[in-house]
Amino acid sequence: MTNTRNLKPPKPKKNNPDALKSIAKYGYIAFQFGVPAGLGFYGGYQLDAYMENSKPVFAAIFSIIGLAIAFYTVFKNLKNKN
Hints:
It is a single chain. By secondary structure, the chain is an all-alpha fold. 73% of the residues lie in helices and 0% in strands. The chain has a domain at 36-82. The protein is built from two helices and no strands. The longest helix has 35 residues, at 17-51. The chain is elongated and about 75 Å long.
């Protein structure tokens, strides 16, 4: 039988400010990447629906443009922060 009187509960871990900064930094990068790419696809999809295209031509074109803008924005901000 074990003695349960001497067991202490583990101490809660304190928040590491450096870890929180890293999470915020990379979360912001993901947001910067996702928004232009998503908006590009959505705009192209809506334009395809409006033009009644059988193939998603504008969705593909606007997605590529959105991804290019996203890459440019992320790389520009990474360059400025370092």
